[in-house]
Structures are given as C-alpha cells and as structure tokens.
Amino acid sequence: MYSPQSLHRWGITHTESMERLAxxxxxxxxxxxxxxxxxxxAKLSIKGLIESALSFGRTLDSDYPPLQQFFVxxxxxxxxxxxxxxxxxxxNKSLWGPLEMVEKLCPEAGEIAASVRxxxxxxxxxxRARAWLRLALMQKRLADYLRLLITRKDLLSDxxxxxxxxxxxxxxxxxxxxxxxxxxxxxxxxxxxxLDTQVGVIDFSMYLKNDIDDYRSEERNGQxxxxxxxxxxxxxxxxxxNSSVHGLxxxxxxxxxxxxxxxxxLAIAKNxxxxxxEENHQLRNExxxxxxxxxxxLEVTQVDVDVELDTYKKSRQGLDEMYNEARKQLRExxxxxxxxxxxxxxxxxxxxxxxxxxxxxEKDIHEKQDTLIGLRHQLDEVKAINVEMYSKMQTSDDGMKxxxxxxxxxxxxxxxxxxxxxxxxxSDKDLLxxxxxxxxxxxxxxxxxxxxxxxxxxxxxx
Length: 462
Prior knowledge:
The chain is 78% helix and 1% strand. The chain has helices at residues 4-26, 30-56, 65-79, 96-100, 102-105, 110-118, 125-139, 142-150, 153-156, 169-178, 211-335, 337-342, 344-394, 401-444, 450-461, and strands at residues 85-87, 90-92. Helix 1 (4-26) runs antiparallel to helix 2 and helix 2 runs antiparallel to helix 3. It is rod-shaped.
C-alpha cells in the first residue's frame, strides 16, 4: 500500500513531470496524447470524487454522479490499448480478461471474482468487469489489485498493446491516485443494476470550474488536508496492527505446525498400536497352532511308543521261549560233554561262527539303543516345546490355565514313557548279559554232536 508521503509525491511532483513529458510526447505520438488525456481525466475524476464525497458526508450509492463518472473514466483507462481478439461471433475487446488475472496474483481477490461469476444478471464480459470494479471499490482494495496487475508486464502483454495506459507509466500514476479513494465509503447494489448495456460517456461539464468553485475547492482542499492527516494516523495504526497481526499469524503458523506434528505422531502411535494388536493376535494364533501340533506330535509319539511296547513284549516272549529251549538243550549237552571234548577243533570253527552270531546280536541291540536315543531326543524336543509353551502360557489370559493343566499331564505321560524306556533299556542289558553267559557256558559244555550244536547256536544267535 502507498504511504501518504508517496501519495503526495505521486500527486504533485511526479504528476507534473509526467504531464510535461506527456505533452512533449503527444506532439509526436497520438497514443501519448490519449494517455495524457486519460491521465488528466482520471486525476480530475478521482479528485472530484474525493472532494464531493467528503462534502457529501455519508456513504455513496450507485446513483451518485461523480461516482458514476469515476467508473466511466476507469473503464476508458482500462480499455485503452486493449488487443482485439477474434472469436466465433466476431472481434471484441474485453476488460474481464486482465481483471480476471488478478485472482491468480492475489488470492484475496478470488472472493470478488467468484461473486462476479455468480451474479445471474451479467451476460457479457464488460458487465462482469464493471461489477468487479464496483466490488473492489467497496472492498477498498482497487488500488492494490491494479498495482499487482501493472507490475506483471509479461501478463499484460497478452491483453494490451505496448503503448496502452496500463503498460506505460501513466498506469502507475493512476494506481497511485486510486489510493486516495480508500477514505470514502461506498455501498453499491451490483445485483440489481444493468451493467451490460450501460453507455460509458464522460461528462466533461462536471469538471469545468469557475471562481466560486476555486474558492470552494480551496476550502475543500483544507478539509482534505485535515482528513489526510487523520488518514495518516489511521494508516499508521493500521501498520502497527498489521505488524501485530503478522506476529500473531507467525505464532498461529507455529502452533499449526506443532499441532500437525502432534497429529502425525498420534497417527503413528495409533498405527503402532494397531500393528501391536495384529502381532498379538498373530502370536495367539501361532500359539494355538503350536499347541495343536504339539498335541498331534504327542499323539503320534504315544502311538509309536505303544507299538514299540507291543513289539518288545512279543520279542521278549519269544526270547523267553528260546531261553527255555536253550536250557533244555544245555541239560542234554551236559550229558554229551565227553563227545564235545573229542571234537574241540571243530568247536573252534563253531566258536568263530558263534562270535559272528554275537556280533549280529550286539548290532541288533545297538540298533535298538539308537532307536531309544532317537526317542529320547524326541522326548527332549517335546519337553523343550512344553517348556516354551509353558513360558508363553504364563503371559496369557486366565483361560490358559486349562492348557497348563494339559501340559502338566503331558509331562507326566512323558515321564512315564521315559521310565518305561529306561526299564526297556535295563531289560535289554540284562537280556544281553544273559545271552552272553549262555553262549559262554554253551562253549564250555559243548558235546560231540556237531550238527546239533551248530543248530542250537544258530537258534540262540537269531
């Protein structure tokens, strides 16, 4: 926004120099003459509007003649040097194009542009441009919006010729003069007014002066000076308020950033909670699956143990029968001891076969021992699984107590199976020692009947 000192400088010193320059250029360039005329008319129109509004003493409306003439002059200034655009209906010059660009340069102007587009009575681009000028004046931002527009020469080149008022320095002077309109208040009814068909004709009789008007203008100039002083004070207060508003806006931005960070952290925490809940649910499902697998493995192991027990019982029963038969044969062989001594050489070879049979028997026993070791490893794995399941079950809910009881029963069954396996191992060891004792006694008490002894040793071996 322009300060009062800059307004004073633009209104007197710079304006006079621009008038002299414009007059010298107008002698050579008709477009320069048009710009000078439009600048003078804008100056007279703005000055007359401010003076009459201050003497009027209340809010201006649409029927106020100086205000109507101001809009006509501004329309001529904005139309000067507009490029002709070809459309389907012919050639036209539209003010709405450059004014609509203000919305992109200043987001605050978007409200005015949206209001203009929503007006139902406007059908032409010229009507929209006239409505936009009236709304910007009521908002007291007309000078600001046009100042943003004239600073973008690259955008204006699409709508204006190089010698247009808005492109040359006269446009900056007119924008500087528009700042003074912020001291007046206007209440314009844009919705009910026919802006499409209005004829913009400048009434020069309003700006013709006489001596009485000069005297009145001097009085009005004094009033204007007093009002401008008040305006300077108000603008200074406005600057201070703007600075405080910017400071508060910075604080608000910082609070919004911190709030957004907290919201992001909260979202992350919620996502972590959801992930932990999903992992907890997954672990519970895995725990259930592991329990089911452990139960299945225990059932399979129990079936295998039962089968092994049945096999062991059958094999022990056969060994008992073989033992009884061997005892009977040993009694018979005691009677044939004398014959066995005569055929000692033959018994040496029989002894070698006996050793082979003993090795086969030991190999069978070792295989059973390996089987028992494998069963022990399986039992250890089952114990480890039970221990792990027990440690996991301690952190579970109260509903896991029944499963702990089940694990305890499984451990008891496992201990029983272990005790049974130890008994089986002990019985195998006893059986091996008895078999070796029988074999040694058989060698000592061998008889002369070689074929009968060989058959007996073979039966004992297998």
